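FAQ

Q: What does a record look like?
A: Structure on top, sequence underneath. For example:
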């Protein structure tokens, strides 16, 4: 079982930056694929970025060049550095974890709100 707790959300103006963190409890953090998802009002949840156990990265086209996902296995923590934020980045951001040696998300955090004003 994994528990995920996100932090770092907030309100910023367009062009600003935020750094999201996701603290994971439980074992085997380093062998799980971790991801950040977001859901805006009236829209489906979408994958923003993910990082595998061997540090294979994925970014949605909409955030490439602006967002950076990383992990600190010693601290059981996942990060999302978000730069040059746009109003369309406004959403609830969720951290997700797979089971060990898997890739599909099985565990979810409660979410942290990011609001970008123009």
């Amino acid at each position: 079982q994994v528990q995920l707790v996100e932090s770092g959300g907030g309100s910023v103006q367009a062009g600003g930056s935020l750094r999201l963190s996701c603290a994971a409890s439980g074992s085997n953090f380093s062998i799980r694929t971790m991801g950040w998802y977001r859901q805006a009002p009236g829209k489906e949840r979408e994958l923003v970025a993910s990082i595998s156990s061997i540090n294979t990265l994925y970014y949605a086209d909409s955030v490439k060049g602006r967002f950076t996902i990383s992990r600190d296995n010693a601290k059981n923590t996942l990060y999302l550095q978000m730069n040059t934020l746009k109003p369309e980045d406004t959403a609830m951001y969720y951290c997700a974890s797979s089971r060990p040696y898997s890739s599909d998300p099985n565990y979810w955090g409660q979410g942290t709100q990011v609001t970008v004003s123009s």
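Q: Is there anything notable about this one?
A: The mean pLDDT is 96.
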